[in-house]
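Retry 2 of 3 after timeout on previous attempt. Resubmitting C-alpha cells to design endpoint.
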C-alpha cells in the first residue's frame, strides 16, 4: 500500500472529496474517524457528521508518545519511537474495529513529516493501520486549524489571527474568511525547542534567553508579513499547550449559553516564564493546567508563544477548543455538502 504523498490544502481536500464520493448515497449522518498522528500524541476523534450540521463527537482517545524525545542525532525516529507509534496506531485501529466508522481519515504531521526516516515510518504505520496516511505539510495544518477556529467563533469575530503550538512546529494564520490570507509554519514546536535549547531541568534563565533570541530570529520575517495586513479583530490560540498556559496564567470570561471562555494576556504569560524556568518539571505539574505529559515542554511553549505575541503586537488571545482534527472533519462535511448539491 503506497502512502499518500505530503500535500497541501488541495491534497487534503482531494482526499476528503474522494472519501465523500464513496458515501454520497448516505442520506443521514456519516460516522467519521480522524486519526491525528502528531508530535506529542496519537489522537483518534470519532464523530457523526452531516452536511450543514455540527460534528457530534462520540469518541476522543489519545495516546501520549512525545516523539521529539525519540529523535536520533541524524533526525530519524528511533526504533523505540517507532514502536511507540505503532502501538498507539494499533490501539486506534482496534478502537475503530470495535466501533466501526464509515470513513477514516488518517493524518501525520510535523515529527513524522520531518524525520529522515519518515517514509519508512509512514509505510510501517500504514501497514499497522491498514489504511493510507495523508502527510500534511505545515501550511495545510495552519489552514485546517484556521478553518476550525473560524467555524467555532463565527463570522461575528471578524478578521481572526491564529496561533497553534505543537510538539514540532508553530502554525500561524490570519484573515477575514475561512481560508486564511496568510498561513505559515515554523519549526518552533514546544518539544523540538525543549530538546534543543532547554534540556536541563530546570532550564534556568540563560537557556530561556537563548531560546527567546532564536524564536525572535525565526519569527521576524513571518511577523513582518502579518503586520503588513490589517490588524485582527480577534486573536485565537489553539493547542493543548496554549490551553494549559491559559489555565495557568489566563482568566475565564462568560461565554454564550452558560459556557466559559478562556483568555490569555501576554503580560500574565510573560510574568510566569521566569518562575516556570526555575521550577523542576516534577513540581510544574502541581500548577494549574500543567499535566504530566506537558510539564517538560511547557516552558518552551510559553517562551515561543510569548515571543510570537510580542512580535505581532498581540496583547491577549482567546483559547479555541477546536483544532486540526476538527478542521479535517469540517473539510469533510463541506465535501459531503458539495456532493449532495451535485447529486
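Retry 2 succeeded. Sequence:
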Amino acid at each position: 500500500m503506497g502512502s499518500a504523498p505530503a500535500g497541501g490544502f488541495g491534497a487534503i481536500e482531494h482526499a476528503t472529496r474522494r472519501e465523500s464520493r464513496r458515501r454520497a448515497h448516505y442520506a443521514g449522518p456519516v460516522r467519521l474517524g480522524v486519526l491525528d498522528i502528531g508530535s506529542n500524541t496519537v489522537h483518534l476523534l470519532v464523530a457523526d457528521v452531516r452536511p450543514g450540521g455540527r460534528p457530534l463527537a462520540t469518541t476522543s482517545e489519545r495516546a501520549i508518545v512525545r516523539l521529539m524525545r525519540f529523535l536520533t542525532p541524524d533526525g530519524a525516529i528511533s526504533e523505540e519511537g517507532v514502536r511507540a507509534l505503532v502501538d498507539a496506531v494499533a490501539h486506534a485501529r482496534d478502537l475503530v474495529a470495535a466501533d466501526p466508522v464509515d470513513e477514516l481519515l488518517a493524518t501525520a504531521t510535523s515529527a513524522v513529516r520531518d524525520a529522515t526516516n519518515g517514509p519508512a515510518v509512514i509505510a510501517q504505520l500504514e501497514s499497522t493501520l491498514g489504511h493510507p496516511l495523508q502527510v500534511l505539510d505545515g501550511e495545510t495544518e495552519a489552514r485546517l486549524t484556521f478553518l476550525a477556529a473560524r467555524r467555532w467563533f463565527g463570522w461575528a469575530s471578524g478578521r481572526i489571527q491564529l496561533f497553534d503550538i505543537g510538539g514540532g512546529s508553530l502554525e500561524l494564520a490570519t484573515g477575514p474568511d475561512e481560508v486564511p490570507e496568510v498561513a505559515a509554519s515554523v519549526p518552533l514546536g514546544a518539544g523540538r525547542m525543549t530538546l534543543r535549547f532547554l534540556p536541563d531541568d530546570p532550564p534556568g534563565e540563560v537557556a530561556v534567553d537563548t531560546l527567546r533570541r532564536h524564536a525572535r530570529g525565526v519569527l521576524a520575517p513571518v511577523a513582518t508579513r502579518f503586520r503588513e495586513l490589517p490588524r485582527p479583530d480577534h486573536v485565537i490560540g489553539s493547542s493543548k499547550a496554549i490551553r494549559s498556559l491559559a489555565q495557568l496564567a489566563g482568566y475565564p470570561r462568560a461565554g454564550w449559553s452558560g459556557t466559559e471562555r478562556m483568555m490569555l494576556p501576554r503580560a500574565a504569560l510573560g510574568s510566569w516564564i521566569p518562575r516556570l524556568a526555575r521550577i523542576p518539571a516534577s513540581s510544574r505539574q502541581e500548577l494549574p493546567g500543567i499535566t504530566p505529559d506537558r510539564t517538560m515542554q511547557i516552558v518552551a511553549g510559553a517562551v515561543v508563544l510569548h515571543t510570537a505575541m510580542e512580535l505581532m503586537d498581540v496583547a491577549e488571545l482567546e483559547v479555541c477548543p477546536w483544532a486540526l482534527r476538527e478542521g479535517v472533519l469540517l473539510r469533510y462535511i463541506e465535501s459531503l455538502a458539495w456532493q449532495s448539491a451535485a447529486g
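Attempt log closed. Residues 205-227 form the longest helix (23 residues).
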